[in-house]
Write a structure and sequence with these properties.
With 546 residues, the chain is mainly α. The protein has 2 domains: 371 residues, Sodium/glucose cotransporter, CATH 1.20.1730; 124 residues, no CATH class. It is 79% helix and 0% strand. The protein has 24 helices and no strands. The protein is globular. This is Na+/proline symporter.
Length: 546
């Protein structure tokens, strides 16, 4: 396929679509606005969200602008198994949250943030690690989504990149600021419906317009052996395995996910997360197939940028009305995650900065709401500035991902093992992040005995990942057995092999080092923690004032 001029919506059409989308969501948010807002409702909807809204919000939040672009890129780069490796592992990580989520809610049913629970469990340093990682992570996510909005608008309309960024930012802020998390959840439901309708229309139209099954059969021979292999080892080692490790960290460490866990009714956690798993996987894998179709037809990504694959496919193979649906699809996906980021940031500032520190244990609900809303305004402004500058945020994303990977084992074990101390938690995270940085940025040469050491640490990390997943679903004994077996199996194969996969070895090493240091320091401690204290220390803020 030769490069072709991208179809553009008229400026008026683009503006009408954007304004119509955000005005509709704003009017929806006004229906739940309360004159005297409850701070617990503003942050976690008083821990009482029902099944439908919870599942829809989880799916919409997990699908952000970067996710379906990346899924399409995976299909284009790795072939048949590419979208599967992106969508399947992301979906399974949603499922992974629920067994541990039930434990979190059982011990601290009125929690607002994971950092708040870490403060009750360990103290300020552990809380600081969780809070800072989420502040940085949510700000970066906000920038990415605003950047995606600017890119979409500039490609598919005469409007500029900056105009697209500003419109999206103002639109998301306008409906989120009034009712916080409740507005995010309610609009997520509508945004998900728009995304599903758009995807159901767009994907079949493109498939049939590129030639359907006849085109697939005719061009199958153009794929490489690995691209044509449903069980491609290349796709797994370079895409699937690193992504599995990354989203496991995201599932445990990210406040946007934790906020939904703390908001859903406790008896609905399991069905909510199972439904979200299925919904996310279906949508993202389906959108990723557009990248696979682009590979089959020999599409040349504009400017060599794989993020242009989906807009190019939409432009070349969709009628104008469907391009409008595609436009809404992308705007809905980025908005659903951006409003979740704003809600997460406000909850962290309200709970972990003001409620637990500045207020010295006596928070004023009115002032909490003020800080929450000001946080949204400031975060939106910062997101617009950095998105408009088009800064390279890869380094920050890498560090945040490493930090979340480093905290997975200490966070989970802090809810089960009473010997883990603040010192064990903090030292484990610092050691793991340092080891990750050495590998990921190639500050050390992976040769000789040093390379073998890191490969063995990565093998431990692989065992930790498998062990934690097995522990969540099947219990302690199964988790320990499968984790140990995984370490034993991986160790001989990893030596001399993993050093060639920098992303994978660095991520697994973070898990391995974190677990080793956490266990070693904990075993030297004589402290014991009474888990009943969590429920006493983590309470509803509004209730504290009545």
């Amino acid at each position: 396929m030769q490069d072709s001029e991208l179809f553009q919506l008229s400026g008026l059409t683009a503006v009408l679509l954007l304004v119509g989308f955000y005005v509709t969501t704003f009017l929806m948010s006004l229906t739940i606005r309360q004159k005297n807002e409850n701070v617990d409702g503003y942050m976690v909807s008083n821990n009482a969200i029902g099944f439908g809204l919870s599942a829809a919000s989880m799916i919409a939040t997990w699908i952000w602008a970067a996710s379906f672009y990346a899924s399409a890129s995976a299909g284009f780069r790795y072939g048949i198994s590419g979208p599967i490796h992106y969508g399947l592992w992301g979906a399974l990580m949603i499922l992974f949250i629920y067994p541990f989520g039930r434990r979190f809610r059982q011990l601290a049913p009125k929690a607002h943030t994971l950092a708040e629970v870490m403060h009750a469990r360990h103290g300020k340093s552990s809380q600081l690690i969780m809070a800072v990682s989420n502040l940085v992570g949510s700000c970066i996510s906000l920038m990415v989504n605003f950047t995606a909005a600017g890119a979409l608008v500039s490609i598919l309309s005469p409007l500029s990149f900056v105009q697209g960024v500003v419109i999206a930012a103002v639109g998301v802020l306008s409906y989120t600021i009034w009712s916080g998390f409740r507005a995010s959840v309610m609009t997520d439901f509508a945004q998900l419906a728009a995304m599903i309708i758009s995807a159901v229309v767009i994907i079949p139209i493109i498939f049939f317009n590129v030639g359907g099954t006849e085109m697939l059969a005719a061009n199958m021979s153009t794929l490489t052996v690995q691209q044509a292999d449903f069980f491609s080892s290349e796709a797994f080692l370079r895409q699937g395995a690193p992504y599995l490790v990354a989203v496991l960290a995201y599932a445990i460490g990210n406040q946007t996910i934790a906020q939904r866990l703390f908001a859903v009714r406790e008896d609905l956690i399991k069905p909510t997360f199972i439904s979200a798993t299925i919904g996310y996987g279906a949508i993202v894998i389906g959108l990723g197939m557009l990248g696979l179709l682009a590979l089959f037809i020999g599409l040349e990504p504009a400017g060599g940028n794989l993020n242009n694959i989906i807009p190019q496919m939409a432009s070349a193979y969709l009628p104008p009305f469907a391009i409008g649906l595609f436009f809404i699809l992308v705007v809905g996906s980025l908005s659903s995650t951006a409003d979740s980021d704003l809600s997460a940031l406000s909850a962290i500032v309200m709970t972990d900065i003001y409620g637990k520190n500045l207020a010295r244990g006596r928070p004023d609900p009115a002032r909490m709401l003020f800080w929450g809303r000001m946080t949204m305004v400031i975060a939106t402004t910062v997101g617009v500035i950095f998105a408009s500058l088009r800064m390279d945020i890869l380094v920050m994303l890498v560090f945040v991902g490493a930090l979340w990977g480093a905290i997975v084992f200490p966070v989970i074990m802090s809810f089960y093992w009473d010997r883990i101390s603040n010192k064990a938690f903090t030292s484990a995270v610092i050691s793991a992040v340092a080891a990750f940085a050495l590998l990921r940025f190639e500050l050390v040469s992976l040769q000789g005995p040093l390379a073998v050491l890191f490969e063995l640490l990565a093998s431990v990390g692989g065992g930790i990942v498998v062990g934690l997943m097995a522990f969540g679903f099947f219990g302690k004994t199964t988790g320990m057995v499968l984790g140990a077996l995984t370490m034993a199996v991986l160790a001989p194969f990893s030596v001399g092999f993993l050093r060639d996969y920098v992303v994978l070895i660095s991520s697994l090493t973070a898990y391995g080092v974190s677990a080793i240091v956490c266990v070693a320091v904990s075993l030297r401690s004589s402290e014991r923690f009474d888990f009943d204290l969590l429920n006493e220390r983590v309470v509803a803020f509004q209730g504290e004032q009545t």
